[in-house]
Known about the structure:
By secondary structure, the protein is α/β, with parallel strands linked by helices. The chain is built from 15 helices and ten strands.
Amino acid sequence: MSTITSILLKDALDRDDIITLLGADNPTDIELIRLTAEKIMRDKCGPDVFYRGLIEFSNHCICDCYYCGIRKSNAAVNRYILPKDDIAASAKWCADQGYGSVVLQSGERRDEAFIDFLADVIAEIKSSTTSEKMPDGVGITLSVGEQSPETYKRLYDAGAHRYLLRIESSNPHLFASIHPPAQDQQTRIDCLKSLRDTGFQVGTGVMTGIPGQTVADLADDVLFFRDMDVDMIGMGPYIVHKATPMNIYYDYYNYAKDEIFQTALLMIAVCRIVLGDVNIASTTALQAMRDNGREEGLRYGANVIMPQTTPVNVRRDYLLYEGKPCLDEDVRHCRTCLEKRIHSIGRKIAVDVWGDSKRALRRQC
Ligand code: SAM
């Protein structure tokens, strides 16, 4: 029996097992890991793919993450915040299409005016998307960064019920190497705990392919997700943006990108194997690297997709990295294109449901 097979037959994996799986580099081993993850996903979550319409509602940001295209020091970015009515209209469009949930994502702001604005938007989306099919309106996931416990409570009370905050890397040194000193990893961990205490379903994730990252770091990331008992995971490859301090890694990135892509897929599979019934997103960054990247993510055990529903006129201003797909496509085109892609791999799209993870539902019982 091969080492990979014997690991996959175990009930619980330790750190060394996870390192071995993430380091798999021959096609037979990789396919074995993928098939195991896919089976666990079907057994524990079912075949459905859950949609969250992604609305990138603002690119104003007070943070200066070294990797991110909308960091505050990038003076070339045309800053915007969508009007309340436009955000609500995008969410309503999602609800009308049967997308049971939306993700409201933005750069980071913590000022009162922004939080008031966001709380109003959440309440407006909730009231305008209630219907017979969805009496409580669409499910709302937030991705607006580090906030105070009071702000988290306010946004939860306004009607949002899921929150994504990536740890980016669980290794404190690696985290420090991609953020300015004022951005502290412990603050992020405290925020994740505060989100859980507030009542949110909590999601986190990392970037795969950060320069200097090892397979052992990634294994520790998986263990971090397990120990934090998260409900959702949203991870993706790191992709260089030319107007960031990390543009010095262009050559490294070009050289390593096939490996980064494959490791990002293996991370999805290993998270599925270790964490079981969490929701795992197949993120847009995968599609930025390969045209079929998001389908591949689903094949490796992901069960959530975030179709692009940001109005086309601002999409180019929310460039986190280079090669972002679907910049000009009309939302209707994005919808049919994705549908075809998902059906092509034998999966089906869940309609008019929030699509909470089984783990989150179990926690509520
Ligand atoms: N400000 C919020 C936060 O930090 O959670 C939400 C917006 S932030 C732009 C969303 C995510 O984009 C980050 O967590 C990060 O992992 C990802 N991201 C930013 N720049 C990236 C890059 N160059 N490559 C891949 N992912 C990137």
